[in-house]
Amino acid sequence: MSRKDREALSKNLQPIRDEAEASDHGVIRASGSLVHQLSYLPGCNIRVAKSLAALGKTFSEITQMSKSDLLAVHGVGEKTAKTLYEFFNQSTA
C-alpha cells in the first residue's frame, strides 16, 4: 500500500476513531448518526452530543429528559441544560 493510500485510508477512518469515547467503565461507542443529530440542537456542541449519546438512550428518550437529568450529563452546564430543556418542551402550536 502506498503512502498516499495509507493517508487516504487514515483520513477516512478518523471519524470512526473520533466516535470512540472513553468512560470510567472502558470504551464505549456512540452512534454516529445520533451524535450528529444531537449536535444540531441549540446549545449542543459535539462534546455534549457525544456525552448524551453515550447514555445509551434513544433520541426520543433524550428529548424527554428533565433539566436536572440533563445537568447530570458530563459537559452540560446550567445554560446548556436550560436551552435544551426549553427546546425539547417548546409548544408546536
Spell out the blueprint of helices and strands.
Layout: H1 3-18, E1 20-23, E2 26-29, H2 32-39, H3 46-53, H4 59-63, H5 67-71, H6 78-88
Antiparallel strand pairs: 1-2
Helix pairs in contact: 2-3
Terminal CA distance reads 58 Å
The structural domain count equals 1
CATH class equals: Mainly Alpha
Overall 3D shape: elongated
Radius of gyration: 16 Å
What kind of sheet is the major sheet?
2 strands, antiparallel
**Share in helix:** 55-70%
Q: What would you give as the CATH superfamily?
A: 5' to 3' exonuclease, C-terminal subdomain
Total DSSP helices = 6
Strand content: 5-15%
Arithmetic mean of pLDDT: 78
Give the CATH topology. Answer: DNA polymerase, domain 1
Strands side by side in the biggest sheet:
1-2
Tally of DSSP β-strands: 2
The string of secondary-structure elements, in order, is HEEHHHHH
Question: Short description, anyone?
Answer:
By secondary structure, the protein is mainly α.
What would you say this structure looks like, in words?
The chain has 93 residues and is mainly alpha-helical. The chain has a two-stranded antiparallel ribbon with strand order 1-2. Residues 20-30 have low confidence and may be disordered. A hairpin with a 2-residue loop joins strand 1 (20-23) and strand 2. Helices cover 57% and strands 9% of the residues. It has one domain: Orthogonal Bundle (DNA polymerase, domain 1), CATH 1.10.150.20. It starts with a helix and ends in a 5-residue tail after the last helix. The protein has helices at 3-18, 32-39, 46-53, 59-63, 67-71, 78-88, and strands at residues 20-23, 26-29. The longest helix has 16 residues, at 3-18.
